[in-house]
Design brief:
77% of the residues lie in helices and 0% in strands.
């Protein structure tokens, strides 16, 4: 198999894992049962690890991680808890089948070992979902008779902004050669995932449906590290200002408290990025001397 073909295969796996993550997170926002929700969130975190491993292998082979999704593999149905878990079993079946076929095609031992490890994880996930399926009833996903549609619309806009930020930071994490910047990007991506989770759960509480449709990232090729960090800072400033604005006009105290909390964390992100930018400038000036 040519290197370009192997990179393409691994990028397909990144997309497949990305899709599973989104499906499981979407369900976690809507499911009432604490045990089931906790289990699905745990499996989603493990799928994030798989996506990271596949993406890192792409970079090692000289490819570029695009963080696309396999849209046809995502099931956003929410008829019942039972139907959602059945969709999860199908997602695990697809992953197991896909990776098992790939093992027969690839020659590189490191990729084979990675696929073998991930297949074992996916098989465990399938068994965990089958166990949950035996326990659940035909319980509906979260529903409220009254939906605060205006607030849900705003929260969904914020959720999608957080999703875009997560993808931006993860892409920087995979491709940056600066170890400190990579570490910072991963930290901020994880915190932004927490923000997205808080927003999604609030949307579910309000009787809404989280909007986790595809987010396209703008191309920012050729930026130097300082310019990249400046762009990161601008996005954090814009995000903080949006949280301030929506918090001031919200009529719901619970939503105002949530937005206030995230606003302060966005300011912390800006400060960390600014401090890193100062260090980059000092290092660059020192080099020039």
């Amino acid at each position: 198999m040519k290197r370009s073909e192997l990179i393409g295969l691994l990028l397909h796996n990144v997309a497949l894992e990305h899709s599973a993550i989104i499906q499981y997170i979407y369900q976690a926002f809507l499911i009432k049962d604490e045990k089931v929700r906790s289990e699905i969130e745990k499996i989603a975190r493990e799928e994030m690890r798989h996506m990271k491993w596949f993406a890192q292998k792409v970079v090692q082979l000289g490819g570029e991680v695009d963080l696309k999704r396999a849209e046809d593999a995502i099931d956003f149905s929410r008829e019942s808890l039972k139907s959602m878990i059945e969709a999860d079993i199908s997602a695990e079946d697809l992953a197991i089948e896909t990776y098992s076929k790939q093992i027969e095609l690839v020659k590189e031992d490191s990729v084979k070992r990675l696929l073998e490890r991930v297949i074992k994880d996916e098989m465990s996930h399938k068994e965990e979902f089958k166990g949950l399926l035996e326990e659940v009833t035909e319980e509906k996903a979260k529903e409220n008779t009254e939906t605060d549609e205006e607030t849900v619309k705003v929260l969904n806009e914020l959720l999608r902004e957080e999703y875009a930020i997560i993808l931006r930071y993860l892409k920087a994490f995979f491709h940056s050669k600066n170890c400190e910047y990579k570490d910072l990007m991963l930290d901020l991506a994880i915190e932004s995932m927490v923000h997205m989770g808080d927003l999604g759960e609030k949307i579910g509480e309000l009787g809404g449906v989280p909007d986790l449709s595809k987010v396209d990232l703008p191309k920012e090729e050729g930026l130097s590290l300082p310019d990249q960090v400046k762009e990161d800072i601008l996005k954090e400033v814009a995000s903080r200002e949006r949280y301030i604005k929506e918090g001031e006009v919200s009529k719901r105290e619970d939503v105002r408290k949530l937005l206030e909390k995230i606003k302060h964390q966005e300011e912390y992100h800006r400060r960390r990025l600014s401090e890193f930018l100062e260090r980059v400038h000092r290092f660059t000036v020192g080099d020039l001397r």
